[in-house]
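Our preliminary data section would be incomplete without showing what the modeling component actually yields. Below, a chain of 383 amino acids is followed by its predicted structure, encoded as tokens that our downstream tools consume directly.
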Amino acid sequence: MIREDFRPETAQRIVVKVGTRLLTHQTGQLNLAYIERLVRELADLKNQGRQVILVSSGAIGAGMGRLGLKRRPETIPELQAAAAVGQGVLIQLYEKFFLEYGQVVAQVLLTRADFAARSRYLNASNTILTLLRWGVVPIINENDTVSVQEIKFGDNDRLSALVAGLCDADLLVILTTVEGLYEADPRLSERARLIREVKAITPELKRCAGGAGDELSTGGMVTKLQAAEIAVNSGAGMFIACGRDPGVLNRILRGENPGTYFYPRNRYLNRRKRWIAFGRNVQGSVTVDDGAKEALCKGGKSLLPVGVLSVEGSFERGALVSVLDRSGREIGRGLCNFSSEELSLIKKHPSSHITRLIGRESGDEVIHRDDLVICDANDLNWS
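Predicted structure:
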């Protein structure tokens, strides 16, 4: 079920993600005119009484400009070094422009490790919420000096959705260089239709993202669909819209639809289950029989060893594992109470055999229901 009653124009806490292609010229260096316009729009949202969080790329471009580099670096160490120079330049630039509109900003650098560790996840959440309470605009980026995720994969789409869940945002807006999600690549088909509203992220919709390439395909739209999956299951609506359209943010918050809108779920994950579903990296997988699948998906039960058919990967106790059915389809994710080695010994056995098989006392569950999230493969609805 979706929250059809939620109207984006009523959003009070908004995350805006802007990518490198909008922030930089073709030379790779910063587009100062665009950044100034973006800041003006964000400051206007603040003047309306809304809370704004900016997830910004562009550190490498800023570093290139400061270092006088004519071409984008190619190696990971060079990219990280350029980002190290550029992060300071970029935040100074944002601070200068926001200050002209009387707004205070703060830089928050995050890595995937900050989401994977529960204590760091909560600390990041508390910091951002405190900044918002103080009326500050948090400017967030992946810490490119120590992380290769954004440099290699353009992962700031996913980062922005994780941030939306981290701070209980009402709305996520991903600004890009295209109008939204199309049924097909509009460069190849004149009949390609812009999809204005998405109520369910289905396998068919994911196929619309196409093959490898740019923001009209994988590496662009695929990561945005992944971001949408996180956002809507965290209770936030999401827009994909063209950032080159002047006033696009105000149009959205006046009730217009200039791109593609993803409806939030009516029953969405609480913070802890968001962390389990999306905050951590999957370390391995377990395949379960039909009876266990039924108990997990329809009965709301915990996973017991007797229902485990096989174990893949090497992981320790407490790792996040994917739960697969016999066809290999993911039906859930959860925190495993056994290592992969122990689980291989107790699979297909009743819980009463666990102590004898692994030589230590333990609970009966492989994954307790409180540590498990279930996924409906038809519409990527997590519960």
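The longest helix spans residues 76-99. The chain has two domains: 8-273, 282-382. Preliminary results of this kind motivate Aim 1 of the renewal.
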